[in-house]
Write a structure and sequence with these properties.
It is built from ten helices and 14 strands. By secondary structure, the protein is α/β, with parallel strands linked by helices.
Length: 260
Amino acid sequence: MLEDDYTWGIRKALRGHGLTPVDAARQAGISESEFLAFSEGKFSEETARRIAAVLHLKAEALVNHPGYQPKPLALPAIHRLDLPFGEERVNAWLVWTDETAILFDTGFEASSCAVALDAIAAPAHGQIFITHGHRDHVGGIPALVARGNVVHGDQIENARPMRPGDSIRCGPITVRACDLSGHADPALGYHIDGLARPVLVTGDALFAGSIGGCGSPAIYQKALRNLKQVLAPLPDSTVLLPGHGPATTLGEERVANPFL
């Protein structure tokens, strides 16, 4: 199940462009009631195309968004930890090989990622990398630090500093940080090299079919610029591991994500 249906995407794009529903409806040439009905779940292809033009979203992706679901992840070394966060869910990602275990984000509660705690305690090269400091992604850090695990992140309490461009070797795996600030600032993405396919941990910068919410038009534009810069050189086969919702691939998102 996607983190955001199309209605959430519309809300995020409205905020990103500093538009009210009245503004967007007028620019799209539809009534406010039509816009509100669409934004509340009454889907119309014609309305989707009109709104996509106003919000600078990819029209075909928005039109097809209600039926979009990325293909299941097919990398056995990667394990999604779908963890509770109140009534919501949040991801931590465990990359496991014979030689190393690497955890990306920790979830909100240490007890909810007990499997990961045990996993990263076993191999000699176990490491933890944090995408950003929002509370649903960092709650397990104190328990990890208490166990002697090494945590890396940018301006993350109890973590060793890591900046865009830094890389760390973990057994056969190399983790390289990149700047995905926007939804959070600072925020790191992590390129993972050494698996069968290239992998990018996106945190909340990018979800399947959507992006993380941004608090102002300036932040929204920054988020899109950073995504464009990081994603542009990567092949379609790149696996994307978001902070919420299912894994996806860059090829799928280039077609199906209205924000790209």
